[in-house]
Specification:
This protein is α+β, with helices and mostly antiparallel strands and about 950 residues long. Among the domains are: about 70 residues, no CATH class; about 140 residues, OB fold (Dihydrolipoamide Acetyltransferase, E2P); about 300 residues, 4-Layer Sandwich (Metallo-beta-lactamase, Chain A), CATH 3.60.15.10. About 45% of the residues lie in helices and about 15% in strands.
Amino acid sequence: MKGRPLLVFTVCWLCGSGIACALSGWSLIVGMIGALACLPLLLRMIDIRGWSTLLLIGALLGGAMHWEWNDARNRSSLPEITHTAAEDLDGYAATFEGTLMSDVRIDGDRADFEMQITSMLQQSDTTSAPASETRTEPNLKERLMVQVRLAEEEEQQVAAGWKRGDSVKLTGSLSLPGEARNFGGFDYRNYLRTLHIHWLFKVKGASSVTTISPEGWEKFNILRWNDIIRHKLGTAVDQIFPEPHGGYMKGLIIGMASDIDPDTYGQFSQLGLTHILAISGTHVAVYVASLLLLLSWLRLTRETSLTIVLLLIPAYVLLSGGSPSVIRAGIMSMIGLYMARRGLARDGLQMISAAALLMMWWNPYFLLSVSFQLSFLVTAGLMIYMPLINRLFSSWPKALAATASVTVTAQLISFPVTILYFNQFSLLSFVANFLLVSLISAIVLPLGTIALIVSFLWLPLAKPLAWIAILLNKLTFASVEWMNSLPGFVLIWATPSLLWIAAYYTVLYALLRVFHRGRGEQQSINQGVEEDTAPLDRRYVGGVPRGALGLSSRSTLSSSHDRRTGRLEASPGSMTTLSASIAWPEYTSAFAVRGAGFYSGERMGSFHKWMCALLALSFVAGLWWAYQTPQPAGAGMVQFLDIGQGDSTLITTPGGKHILVDGGGTVRFGKPDQSWRTRRDPYEVGAKVVVPLLKKRGIHRLDAVIVTHADQDHAGGLQAVLEQIPVERFMFNGTTSGTDNFEKLLDTAIEKEIPLYAIRQGMSYAPDGETNLRFVYPDLEKTMDVGDRLPVSEHQNHDSVVFLLEMAGASLLFTGDMDAAAEQDLLFMIQDGSLAASFGQHDADAALADDSVQELFTHHSGEEQEANISMPVSIDVLKIAHHGSKTSSTEAWLQYWNAKTAVISAGVNNTYGHPNPGVLGRLEATGADIYRTDQMGEVQMKIKDGKIDVRYKLIRED
């Protein structure tokens, strides 16, 4: 570390920025004091003293101050310009003029782009003349995310004509971006803030947008031309590759990941292969290496080749979309090429430090980018960990050993960040990356790129090349689909803490070091690890001793001398090695794998055995601990999720059982003849909200899914749940709505061999000793044999499943969308005693598909359970039916249950006007505490010993 001042400086800078990002106010001051107190001790441990300590303290403070300075300036100026409070700007109608600042993304009936405001037009009304527009010319620096709702299919072509750099005038209304409404949910508002965007501007119809192309020097907008070239390249890809190969190859070659088929992307994501679907450091490495090799074949001098490639890298970074991973790889490659051009020593860790420092100085919000974090962590991890890991494959053939070392190292390094953001990891990810990454990077990517280039010269010649790539793609897709079809390999992980992540990397490194030292490989480690990561001189290529690649000193870094011309000529062999050292500084140690005879062969000493065993045990124990589902000790949890207009509740019992009641759903009103409005990846509550929340909370499996009725806003989101989360049993009201969506849901349950249960009055389900679900409705007297067609009910709200949850000493009544008639029926049955009698029946099994779980659903005898089956005169929590609609929650119903707390699940500003003011009035009259997801977001109730602690995500709006 002492020999790498830039590395230590960058680490301190990043730590300062991270502290400032995580903390604010007095907590930031306390955090910085604590960091400054610990820093000298840490620096002394790595033998850094004197003036260097002051420099690194300055780096820590500089990183924090730089973040705070940028964050303080990241504010919206619109409240000041409009003289309107920020909370009142939501829905504010306005006309803006400005400049289009991004590529226009068209998906179905929506076009999105970013806009830089230059002026705002205000309406001035006079009594003697028509209203006119007054242009205000403040010093606006506001950036908006514009969403244009297209009215006609022809408007898609109009929107396609809008280009970056156009002058834009548009009329619409401001809207606050959505914030995280569930604990751990995605915060779109914070995400846009990292892009310096604070408002959405919603426009109805392309006719409300006027654009003017730039003139004069403004035509030469490099980003505008870059967009045009990318679109032309994308069109060329579509000409030679049919779907889904077209979208896949566009993501692979030019970074247009948005065009990838959503199903294909999901399959690759589950196996940890998404880095292949977007331009990353590997693509830049292939690009640089290919150019250097091509120029060497053209017999250009080494210096000329390096200069040409150095100048071409920024063009590739722009054409590939400029993601943080591409920018990182581009900067590192340019630094490596420049230093090679000057004959200077290259050190991968110093290069990556320079790249990180430059990117953070340009935009400190890069620190919050998943792409930035994964790119830098994996790259640095390959440099530090791979020299240790590649020795595990020393007996393998060199090519396989190098691939295995890179794959295992990358997977181990990326694992904590993967589960931090995506909360799942496939055990087959190692196999998939080992088998497919080399195929895609070394064959499909170059082949597709050559086919794309050739298509501009002669399209018929590009077709055979594309045909070969398509065959390989089909092989890839089939392999990915087959691996994803294997059950039990995808593990769901709760979101880990940053402390656990730091401990993971520390213990892993210590384990690898001790393991090799214990085998008597001290000398080998010193020669490999220390030299591979030490500052380089001319004896090394990208951190690898010359001899490791089997090349002589002269052929490695020196160019051959042409005596006739007096020029330095680059041989293909030397340029190949040089390209590896520049383009893959993080990979080069993989090629230094020696044969088995490289080791001294000494046995591991007793001390090292014990240390290895202790570290391995700690590593496995840490993984096991992180895999457990977090849960309050001895308490139950009821989590009313905010999924918009609909219902979804997660119940976790004191015994650790998980029950999901409904899953929300997106209701669409599109007409069959308007298929053009369908978006490529439409928003679906189950896939976008419910499933991610379940994964973030570490729900490995659901012991039961209860769908109260078949309406889309309750059952629609469960399709994604059944497809991605293991489910033990599926309960519903025994009827179907006859819609395609619900029929598909039932078919999915049957395909996955999930037992189906038709709930009827009198059944109960006891997942553990402290929890009991007593089903009190519907009273459907229908006998259904296995295999019979389910009856179709047109009154799904009336037939909703209603149950009383008794857990940890508290009682909660769940009512689905039951209507006033169902409430009246149930009250009548309670009062005349017929409901209690229903719990004494022993007639039919509840299971439609599996008779082996009958003991879970009991029909208690009236004599044995008489004290338990009587309905309580007061309950703790009442889930208000039908989102607070006026069709239910009658006065008699509310008075009978006399609930202490009421929960209403409704969408923000929903078109139905839920909850109804009359219902709210009746609830207030009962004196119940009212919690609403439309105002408070997710509502969580922690239940222990009859006591209920409530918390909610958003501040209550009184």
